């Protein structure tokens, strides 16, 4: 009997090589749904088998509270996937959002069971998913933002907002999801009776965030339906001007989708205007940072001279040095850097 494999353990270099050789087009898409899943592990295993059979790559999280998924689907399997998902009772009537722009987003399939879909780390007493903010279309959101009394809050991490955001949005100075909700509540103190407008990448972070704010006394909480991704599609469909400027950060190999031509960020090394994120090529670092083409060439995709020197050592030498805490240079440059200010 053939053994059923529920994990991909192939070396990533081989997976990336196979992706480059593909002769067909892929569609990058995302969806989420807050819904009770009785057995997340079994649900995860069944979904892995389905996705794997359709040659789907991507990253999906399953929890008792629902599902959050970003996937890369062979174009020829797109209609089959939608039909299969509709046949799963927990996933009926899904709103699946195609990416703003295509690119090689994922090279393998990963599906994990988690405690939370978004790692806010808040108590279940702090929210009620039956009471969430009002969902606004792109047209409604744009109109609402014209009200001078409106408060716009970016519900993403700082490094995402750095390359793209709505005009006049409040950008919480946090780098992890666990810091976000308490900080937003602190920032909004005194605005409990005023209109609040939240936005994020695809909508999932705003869903629980809006519920949290409502539970904490905010009366008029609104959120962008489908996040920046759906907003951008609706802009094109309705030929309206974007109030979101710059790039939409995405958590895959593309690291960003261009929404407008404005460049809102700076290279973290030379301070030239740039909004391209780079994953430091030093395997002892892998910090995510913004790097212009000039510095990418100069430092060979590394975040500093120290990381570049380390990355150029023979692999065996790197492994030996990484066992010694004195020689590990992970985040050497960025632990000491001053976080760049956002361009208004």
Task: State the domain count.
Answer: 3
Summarize the main sheet.
Answer: 5 strands, mixed
CATH superfamily of the largest domain: Rhodanese-like domain
How far apart lie the N and C ends?
62 Å
Can you tell me the CATH topology of the largest domain? Oxidized Rhodanese, domain 1
Helix content: 25-40%
CATH architecture of the largest domain: 3-Layer(aba) Sandwich
Q: How large a portion of the residues is in β-strands, by DSSP E?
A: 15-25%
Number of strands: 14
Helices and strands, in order, run as HEHEEHEEEHEHEHEHEHEEEEHHHH
Unreliable runs? 329-334, 336-344
- The Cα radius of gyration reads 21 Å
Please tell me about this protein's structure.
This protein has 344 residues and is of the alpha/beta class. It has 3 domains: 12-113, 2-Layer Sandwich (Alpha-Beta Plaits); 124-238, Oxidized Rhodanese, domain 1 (3-Layer(aba) Sandwich); 277-336, no CATH class. Helix content is 31%, strand content 19%. It contains 12 helices and 14 strands. The chain has helices at 12-21, 40-53, 78-86, 138-145, 158-161, 177-187, 204-215, 227-238, 293-298, 305-311, 315-321, 332-336, and strands spanning 26-34, 57-63, 66-74, 97-98, 109-113, 134-136, 151-154, 164-166, 195-199, 220-224, 244-248, 257-258, 277-279, 288-290. The strands form 4 sheets. Strands 4-1-3-2-5 form a 5-stranded mixed sheet, with helices on one face. The protein has a 4-stranded parallel sheet with strand order 6-10-9-7. A 3-stranded antiparallel sheet has the order 8-11-12, with no helix packed on it. β11 and β12 form a beta hairpin. The longest helix is centred in the N-terminal third of the chain and has 14 residues, at 40-53. The radius of gyration is 21 Å and the shape is globular. The N and C termini lie far apart (62 Å). The model is unreliable at 329-334 and 336-344 (pLDDT under 50).
């Amino acid at each position: 009997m053939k053994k059923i494999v529920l994990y991909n353990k192939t070396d990533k270099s081989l997976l990336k090589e196979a992706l480059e050789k593909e002769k067909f087009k892929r569609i990058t898409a995302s969806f989420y749904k807050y819904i009770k899943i009785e057995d997340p592990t079994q649900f995860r295993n069944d979904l892995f088998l389905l996705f794997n059979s359709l040659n789907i790559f991507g990253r999906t999280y399953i929890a008792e509270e629902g599902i959050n998924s970003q996937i890369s689907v062979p174009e020829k399997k797109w209609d089959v996937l939608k039909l299969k998902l509709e046949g799963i009772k927990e996933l009926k009537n899904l709103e699946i959002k195609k990416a703003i722009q295509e690119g090689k987003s994922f090279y393998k399939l990963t599906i994990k069971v988690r405690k939370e879909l978004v790692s806010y780390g808040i108590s279940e007493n702090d929210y009620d998913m039956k009471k969430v903010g009002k969902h606004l279309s792109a047209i409604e959101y744009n109109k609402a933002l014209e009200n001078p009394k409106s408060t716009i809050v970016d519900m993403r991490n700082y490094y995402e907002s750095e390359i793209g955001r709505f005009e006049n949005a409040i950008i919480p100075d946090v780098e992890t999801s666990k810091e976000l909700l308490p900080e937003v509540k602190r920032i909004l103190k005194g605005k409990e009776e005023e209109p609040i407008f939240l936005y994020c990448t695809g909508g999932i972070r705003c869903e629980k965030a809006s519920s949290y704010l409502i539970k904490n006394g905010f009366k008029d909480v609104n959120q962008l339906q489908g996040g920046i991704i759906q907003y951008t599609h609706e802009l094109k469909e309705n030929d309206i001007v974007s109030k979101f400027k710059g790039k939409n950060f995405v958590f895959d190999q593309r690291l960003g989708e261009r929404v407008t031509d404005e460049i809102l960020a700076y290279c973290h090394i030379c301070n030239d205007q740039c909004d391209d994120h780079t994953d430091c090529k030093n395997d002892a670092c892998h910090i995510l940072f913004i790097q212009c083409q000039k510095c990418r060439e100069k430092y060979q995709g590394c975040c500093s001279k120290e990381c570049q020197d380390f990355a150029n050592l023979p692999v065996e030498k790197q492994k030996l040095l990484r066992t010694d805490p004195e020689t590990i240079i992970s985040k050497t440059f960025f632990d000491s850097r001053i976080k760049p200010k956002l361009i208004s």
